[in-house]
């Protein structure tokens, strides 16, 4: 059985005056520990699909299962990371990273120790008693990642988590997230507009077409790139070749 199954998913947004089909017949599978990126032109339904995977939206038709469970059930255990860090400014970093554990009634000495260990692993040791305003944007996103990982989710859904950062910080955080997910063998789905980011971080890239959103093409990232950290992967010749291939496909979609 596949870890994630998306089968014939359709979604339509209804208003009083019209119905707009956002997704049409989306099907794909993922294995545990795999990293997949959703790429495509604006309006192709990437965020809608991510919201369905998170259980925030129910698809109009089709089936989604995560480790045999429906999204949104307590057993499905999903972590969601957004463009903004959404740390509570009046709480310390330690208090912020414990929020998910508190909400799930799983905060205990062992889970607290694990969360603080993650903070150290991700390079934020010594920030426990600081407030978000005292940290840089990249450090706040790292704290948001710790908060997401602290509840030990089975799958991480990443909605353009680096897009608000400067380019240098973005590249560093790509490596950090990549290393962390590999270390903890996490399954992840990334929504991005950045072709380079998708190639550097992913095992596979799902290219979506728009109006309505549908799966257009799947790109398998070559093994020699997948073995490298994102920053190193960007300097490889095969990275540039794949970038050009995806760029041409994306341009044809946007011009069609």
Automatic annotation (TrEMBL):
GO terms for molecular function: ATP binding; ATP hydrolysis activity. The keyword Oxidoreductase does not apply. SUPFAM superfamilies: P-loop containing nucleoside triphosphate hydrolases (SSF52540). It comes from the Bacteria. It holds the Pfam family ABC_tran. The keyword NADP does not apply. Keywords: ATP-binding, Nucleotide-binding, Transport. Gene3D superfamilies: P-loop containing nucleotide triphosphate hydrolases. Residues 4-235 form the ABC transporter domain. CDD domains: ABC_NrtD_SsuB_transporters. InterPro entries: AAA+_ATPase (IPR003593), ABC_transporter-like_ATP-bd (IPR003439), ABC_transporter-like_CS (IPR017871), ABC_transporter_ATP-bind (IPR050166), P-loop_NTPase (IPR027417). This is ABC transporter-like protein. It comes from Heyndrickxia coagulans.
